[in-house]
């Protein structure tokens, strides 16, 4: 006999869960009859399937349970919710401290999430992001393996022809030129690529055709460029004239306008033209020259895994490259997918991408965790102290039959309500204040995307985990009291809970760290503002010129100006442009920076001569002389620096002078070994003018006016020498502002926590304090009584905090700046004193309240 | 298969008519309708019971739990006098609808 078939469990449970009690028997009886009938007629599988369908079809409002009246758990949680809201209203100060602290912490977590989401989505809009790779080369420099983004010119084509997994390639070269349309004339960066670039990368066009890049006379422009030049994007067919070095001119027809690039991108373009036009910029360019390099070679492989096989086939190109160009021997080739190129760029020199957000990726998650820790510590401390006020409620609950587990769940649920409110508030804070503020500081455009499901998941995770972390100890602590001891009034609260002390200590350490950080950055900014650049950038202006003729014309025009003290020039200019070269000594090959300048350049720019002499006036005498910086002298380590020789290409140069080290771009990085050589007149591309004290503004205006008169067809390209570092000082000001904001929030949270802690302690001991007051206790007595439990922990925390602050601030400065304040100890000491002052202030506010209190009222409590 | 709308519209007279033939319960009512319509009208518990309970509330039918010698109690429904009157009214209305449709479908198209 066959066993009676069983109903499928899952739909049966579902039916039982949702169906009204009074309908259950009637409805399910029918479902059962249908099920058994179908088992006989159609088989078990079909019957089970149909049973599922029946259960789903019956899931209608008329069959649903009245959840509120039927589900005791829901009633219970509703009750907990009411109790939780009442508790929050009764303990308004604690609730305010908890919710405000948690909401700030959650808002910072949201900022972190949005930042990471932005950072990890950079350049991921390219459909081929996993199969398009930037080819890089590794070069051994004095034992350091350096990765470069440029590669030999013919490499891409050779790989396409010889490596089957490579299915496409595009070279990328960036050059500067002047673009002109009517009265709109600007210096621009022109990106030259192979036509396949727009197939490999995803840059959809608003108008035009991507294939038109095959035409040598076509240009594809960005959305912003179209607006800048034409005020419109429907500009296909319009002309743009490219002027290069004042010699080459070519008119391009706009063949396409790209859609606006996504916010999270780094690789982009303003003007995209066919790379066959490269001879406009470099007439001697030979594309099959293995000694020449191209800014980037992008390759596309058939599938992501193929790149391993491609890497294995690169050894022949390494060998070929090293045989042909022994000046630039490479160790190997590497490949970075577009998907992660942004992050890889941290290690790639001269690449087409860059990574400026590594500090953010480290700092922000740490900050979010730190703020959550602070807020949780506040919550735990306040909840534990508040427990004494809820003893009777707990006693009643337990008497009514609540077990310890129930009380724990009640307090965790109450905590969930608090964190729920805090999460909502945190979202608003993040959305309205923190993210716009951080976007401004970090100069990136990002926001919270409320349609992003991960945002909801992350918020929920933060809410639940925060509520568990902060709530579990108070819940366990509160629930442990026995009913009988509560009502007998013999429950003893330790006024010196060790956990409270530990948490307060941690908070103080964190506050000390953030204050120290803020002070460190402020001090460091002041220090960097005073660092000697190694030359005198004050009272100097400069301009980039197209050629020596323009230089001469401008020089003639400016030389008679009464505020012009001296005028010099160069092919390169400090702070703006330099080149790299390889210096060969007997036993070493060094990569160094080179500035090719006029003989009087160093003297005019006020470089400090440490040894030897400046270049002699005139073009001829010092053509094979070189002046080096101190770093270079130290690196070479010759016995007698002056008079020593090294080789550049095939020419020997003699060192005639050593100048003091100087800062080129910023204080982030170490000074590089640098050489100065004498430029020929025809190579002059920069003009630098030393002005009378305080007259640089007038001279710059005059320079612009003369420029407009002498070379009106070209856009002016110059500035104060003090501004050559661009946004560097603005960026470090932003760093300082960020740290000051973090410090302010941290100190506020700690002070609020301490304020609440003292207030609750006073409230718990109000009768004792009132009796003491009645019996004539004085101020000093009260201060001693209330402060003794905090003084030691504050002193211990500040001592420990000072060490932690020193380590953190020093590490952070070291990570960011090569040139920084010599010691962070002054900042640490100042921070500790400041924190002690703030804590004393908070304490005095509370003590003053007792002074003004009527002891009779205190004795009437309860 | 008869459309859902028409099935829904005819539920009340069909249930009343079936109960006029004798007391019955959900499972049997659904089976009966399926039989009579050659499977063209597909009812489920989800469709039938809301109507049964409404009719009971309106006093057109009554119910009582009956324990037979089988395994489970069943709730049998019976038509009331009010229900019979309502069925007569429904019959008249449906007859009218049918006659209108018949007359429309039997009219020959006129030519100009």
List the helices and strands and how they pair.
The complex is a heterodimer of chains A (862) and B (112).
Chain A: H1 9-18, H2 21-42, H3 44-58, H4 67-70, H5 72-90, H6 92-120, E1 132-141, E2 144-148, E3 151-152, H7 155-162, E4 166-181, E5 184-193, H8 197-200, E6 205-208, E7 218-221, H9 223-230, E8 239-244, E9 248-258, E10 271-274, E11 293-294, E12 296-301, H10 306-312, H11 315-324, E13 330-337, H12 338-344, E14 348-349, H13 358-386, H14 391-399, H15 404-442, H16 453-479, H17 483-488, H18 498-530, E15 540-544, H19 548-559, E16 564-570, E17 579-584, E18 589-597, H20 601-604, E19 609-612, E20 625-629, H21 630-636, E21 645-648, E22 651-659, E23 674-678, E24 686-691, H22 696-710, E25 718-720, H23 728-764, H24 766-774, H25 779-816, H26 825-851, H27 855-859
Parallel strand pairs in A: 2-14, 5-10, 7-9, 18-23, 20-22
Antiparallel strand pairs in A: 1-2, 1-12, 1-13, 3-11, 4-5, 4-8, 4-12, 6-9, 7-10, 8-9, 15-24, 15-25, 16-24, 17-18, 17-21, 19-22, 20-23, 21-22
Helix pairs in contact in A: 1-3, 2-3, 5-15, 6-13, 6-15, 6-16, 6-23, 13-16, 13-18, 13-23, 15-16, 18-23, 18-25, 18-26, 19-22, 23-26, 25-26
Chain B: H1 4-21, H2 26-36, H3 45-57, E1 61-67, E2 73-79, H4 81-106
Helix pairs in contact in B: 1-3, 1-4
